[in-house]
Amino acid sequence: MSVRPDIQVQLDALADKLDHWVARVRHPAQFWPQFEQLTGEILDQCANAERDHARASIQAMLEHHALELPSWHERDDTLPPGTPGA
């Protein structure tokens, strides 16, 4: 499944930002908090069916730049039972 067009626009914008950040940011401490915030905002807007595609897109962006999520990066995007979209 793909994602809605508005989510794809946000993923594309994140990919563009990532190109800039990798070229200009000198220390990971400057990069990861903002990256995590932006990816979290995107994932929060995704329906359950869209999350796998969005996560795969984000992972592909990181792999393109030879980056890996830090070991402390743990995000639980599961919705509690009875939540709309769950």
Features of the shown structure:
86 residues; mainly alpha; 3 helices; 0% strand
Order of helices and strands: HHH
* DSSP strand content: under 5%
How many separate helices?
A: 3
Largest sheet: none
Mean pLDDT: 82
Silhouette: elongated
Q: Which class of secondary structure composition applies to the elements?
A: mainly alpha
Overall strand count: 0
Q: Share of helix among residues?
A: 55-70%
Please give the radius of gyration in angstroms: 13 Å
Q: What low-confidence regions span 5 or more consecutive residues with pLDDT below 50? A: none
N- and C-termini, Cα separation: 16 Å
Q: Which helices and strands occur, and which strands form pairs?
A:
Layout: H1 5-24, H2 28-45, H3 48-64
Helix pairs in contact: 1-2, 1-3
Kindly summarize this structure in a few lines.
It is built from three helices and no strands. It is mainly alpha-helical. α1 runs antiparallel to α2.
Provide a descriptive summary of the structure in words.
The structure is a single chain. It is built from three helices and no strands. It has 86 residues and is mainly alpha-helical. It has a domain of 60 residues. Helix 1 runs antiparallel to helix 2 and helix 1 packs parallel to helix 3.
